[in-house]
Specification:
The protein has 193 residues and is mostly beta strands. 11% of the residues lie in helices and 38% in strands. The strands form four sheets. Strands 3-2-6-9-10-5-4 form a seven-stranded antiparallel β-sheet.
């Protein structure tokens, strides 16, 4: 591999951290009782106890107001089986589109909160808003995970079965990547103390 470095425009610095797991955030317009879906790649766990995750979202997004108001959202994990729907949900606004109706995705009742889960997704994390922080041109929503669940045959021994599950990773623009099922487990020599 070539070792010469090239300068990366700072407006694209975050792409050096891609591909990132793509997720579908469901939220609810409580006045109209209308759910919405947003595609997002800026989602990370930040605490195990309490179970907290962080999603970064621009304030002009429709989902921003739906999370900031009712203070609930679901992080749904899509697979390659719904890549077209995942892209559609990232390219259209819920202010003007009913994304469930237009994609054919199925809303199902969540276990503990009002926004629905997406049936076609392989896993779900139901969250209540723990904290909201304005940070630069985005808002950081810290969600407390109230419950998390996955398809029985997809998540074994606390990890996804990569032979069966092809998770989506946002590579940039309209492109997504998937992992192959090969894993690498390095063996370290015992370090002397």
């Amino acid at each position: 591999m070539e070792t010469e470095k090239v300068e990366v425009n700072l407006s694209s610095f975050y792409r050096l951290l891609h591909p990132k797991l793509a997720v579908l955030i469901t939220s609810l317009n409580t006045l109209k009782d209308k759910p919405n879906i947003m595609t997002l790649a800026w989602a990370i766990p930040i605490s195990r106890n309490p179970p907290l995750l962080l999603i970064g979202m621009a304030p002009q997004r429709y989902s921003h107001e739906l999370i900031a108001g009712p203070k609930e959202f679901v992080v749904n994990i899509p697979t390659v089986d719904i890549v077209k729907e995942t892209l559609f949900c990232g390219k259209t606004t819920g202010r003007e589109h009913d994304k469930f109706a237009e994609t054919g995705l199925t809303p199902l009742p969540a276990k503990m909160i009002r926004p629905p889960i997406i049936k076609e997704c392989v896993a779900h994390l139901e969250c209540k808003l723990h904290q909201q922080i304005a940070m630069g041109d985005h808002t950081l929503f810290v969600g407390e995970v109230l419950t998390a669940y996955a398809n029985k045959d997809a998540f074994l021994n606390s990890k996804f079965d990569l032979e069966k599950v092809k998770l989506l990773y946002h590579a940039g623009g309209n492109e997504f990547a998937i992992l192959n099922s090969e894993t690498v487990t390095p063996i370290l020599e015992k370090v002397k103390e």
